[in-house]
Design a protein that fits this description.
By secondary structure, the chain is mainly β. The chain has a single domain, classed as Jelly Rolls. About 5% of the residues lie in helices and about 40% in strands. It is built from 2 helices and 13 strands; from the N terminus they run E-E-E-E-H-E-E-E-E-E-E-E-E-E-H. It has helices at about 30-40, 170, and strands at about 1-5, 10-15, 20, 25, 45-55, 60-65, 70-80, 80-85, 100-105, 110-115, 115-125, 125-135, 145. The protein has a 6-stranded antiparallel β-sheet, with no helix packed on it. Strand 3 (about 20) and strand 4 form a beta hairpin. It binds dtdp-4-keto-L-rhamnose. Dtdp-4-keto-L-rhamnose (TDO) binds near residues 119, 120, 121 and 138. Its EC number is 5.1.3.13.
Length: about 180
């Protein structure tokens, strides 16, 4: 397992060690001991989520507020996405920084997004199955978000605007300047 730091403090790209043979492949998609040793983070994951998206689907930018904040370990089981993290932690050295990374079932990369960051992704392949672990339970009342095209962050979502598919909820998300606290 290889861990690479990103420009967001506490946000990592993780490449599992893959064993290939004539049957196919095997890898540890999460190993708590190695994860803690190599990242220094100690999340206690309590919920696993999975979503399927078609090309152009953009989910984000999401977070949960206050005591309901979630760290996430995300990966792609099928297809390809560009994953995005935005550091919204007041006082963080990397406050306001954006990390984007291509995750796919081919490269098998994972991203670890610490609590206090907004998260989103865009689906680049015809279909993508996205899977992630969270260290806090879903809480509808604590849901927060920022509109994907907020000029503060200027994220390049790679696809043309007319290709994007967002939920009604995500289209109504506020600008960063008007959002509630993380
Ligand atoms: C996130 C979530 C949603 N739901 C329900 C609420 C809703 O009816 C339905 C779909 O929810 P959403 O539209 O919010 O799903 P989605 O837009 O995929 O939300 C996810 O986006 C990515 C980028 C994240 O980072 C996640 O934390 C989560 O916010 O599923 C749960 O029951 N549990 C959960 O943990």
């Amino acid at each position: 397992m290889k861990v690479t730091k990103t420009k967001i403090e506490g946000c990592f790209v993780i490449e599992p060690k893959v064993f290939e043979d004539e049957r196919g492949y095997f890898f540890e998609s999460f190993n708590q001991e190695k994860f803690e040793l190599l990242t220094g983070a100690k999340p206690f994951f309590v919920q696993d989520n999975q979503s399927k998206s078609v090309r152009g689907v953009l989910r984000g930018l999401h977070f949960q507020t206050g005591q309901y904040a979630q760290a996430k370990l995300v990966q792609v089981l099928q297809g390809e996405v560009m994953d995005v993290a935005v550091d919204l932690r007041n006082g963080s050295k990397s406050f306001g920084q954006v990390v984007t990374h291509i995750l796919s079932s081919e490269n098998r990369k994972q991203m670890y997004i610490p609590r206090g960051c907004a998260h989103g992704f865009i689906t680049l392949s015809e279909k993508a199955i996205f899977s992630y672990k969270c260290d806090n339970f879903y809480n509808k009342e604590a849901e927060g978000g920022i509109i994907y095209n907020d000029s503060t962050f200027g994220i390049d979502w790679l696809l043309e605007d007319h290709e994007l598919i967002l939920s009604e909820k995500d289209l109504q998300l506020p600008a960063y300047s008007e959002s509630t606290l993380v």
